[in-house]
Amino acid sequence: MKHAPLVESLIEAFTCLPGVGPRSAQRMAYALLERGREDGRQLAGALTAAMDGVRHCQRCRNYAEHDLCPICQDPRRDAGLVCIVASPADVLALEQSGEYRGHYFVLMGQLSPLDGIGPRELGLDVLEQRLNEGQIQELILATGTTVEGEATAHYVLDLAREAGVSVSRIAQGVPMGGDLEFVDGATLAQALRGRRPFST
Ligand SMILES: [Zn+2]
Q: How remote is the C-alpha of 120 from its chain's centroid?
């Protein structure tokens, strides 16, 4: 039996989500149509609002609704200290550690030439420009310890060296090959306090 075209296209649409195959997509569509019409309308509204209204902060590349995100706008934060992370989830994890009062730079990925992700895709040209402006005193690398994380860290290290900015790297407690978002707040706080100068 084939679905009605609208049901079919709803199922199809859900499969764009990470980790959602045809079966889960079908379950989601049925659930909303059967018992969650209001939830479904809210979901549709939230999706449209976010897709139209969310952009990247011009300073740190994190998600923002205005030119600057709330962290970059906050005058109480130390603009001389910038933590380099791979994703907005990592910013959240570090914020929840309660330990960090500096700014961020969010790469929205890691260097991965085979997947076509080079320095430009990660905004590293923007970072280079910011490093040369002279306001940044220290970079903290928190790009994770995967192969891509390592490659990214070394690229950023070279940029910082050229600009004469010191670089440290969080280390303790962050598992090898691990992603920051899965590390608990206490461990991250510890990792930030125990950061070490980074060099090759
Ligand atoms: Zn920002």
A: 16
